[in-house]
């Protein structure tokens, strides 16, 4: 019997910027891997490598988006940076709480909510991602 994925990829998730779409696939694949391990009965101690991968993945995904947004002179870049840092800090706190309470479902719940908010945020940032020239930084001449 196959077990369902926690978050199933949908066409509506596509942003139309290949690097962002690939990273979104990767984030969801890692979230679904965490879900699979939880279904198998692993405790958070065993899941720590997967959680560390998720933290790293979220950081480099945010850094990729930030680089593109900076190159397109996104007007809300400071609030984007603040949100990025807040999410990473909040995720770490949720992971610690889940460890203390022995409740890995807290991590999954947070990630599902994050994903929904992140997609909603893309309504604002995706137009700027499409203005990207393919370079992460501009050199003023």
Short description:
This protein has 141 residues and is mainly alpha-helical. It has helices spanning 18-39, 44-71, 77-101, 105-129.
Structural key phrases:
single chain, 141 residues, mainly alpha, 71% helix, 0% strand, globular, disordered C terminus
Overview of the molecule:
The structure is a single chain. This protein is mostly helical and 141 residues long. Helices cover 71% and strands 0% of the residues. 18% of the residues are buried. The chain is globular, with a radius of gyration of 16 Å. Helix 2 packs antiparallel against helix 3. The protein has a domain of 87 residues. The protein contains four helices and no strands. The longest helix is centred in the middle third of the chain and has 28 residues.
The structure class reads: mainly alpha
Radius of gyration: 16 Å
Q: What is the count of helical runs?
A: 4
- Overall average residue pLDDT: 90
Distance between the termini: 61 Å
- β-strand amount: under 5%
Principal-axes geometry comes out as globular
Helix fraction, binned, reads: over 70%
What pattern of helices and strands is seen along the backbone? HHHH
Which blocks of ≥5 consecutive residues have pLDDT under 50?
A: 137-141
Characterize the largest beta sheet: strand count, sense, and whether it forms a barrel: none
Number of strands: 0
């Amino acid at each position: 019997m196959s077990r369902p994925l926690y978050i199933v990829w949908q066409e509506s998730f596509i942003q139309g910027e290949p690097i962002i779409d690939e990273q979104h696939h990767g984030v969801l694949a890692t979230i679904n891997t965490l879900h699979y391990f939880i279904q198998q009965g692993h405790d958070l101690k065993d899941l720590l490598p997967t959680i560390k991968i998720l933290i790293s993945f979220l950081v480099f995904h945010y850094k990729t988006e930030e680089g593109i947004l900076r190159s397109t002179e996104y007007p809300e870049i400071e609030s984007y940076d603040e949100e990025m840092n807040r999410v990473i800090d909040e995720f770490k706190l949720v992971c610690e709480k889940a460890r203390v309470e022995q409740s890995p479902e807290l991590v999954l719940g947070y990630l599902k909510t994050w994903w929904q908010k992140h997609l909603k945020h893309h309504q604002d940032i995706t137009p700027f991602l499409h203005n990207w020239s393919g370079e992460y930084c501009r050199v003023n001449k």
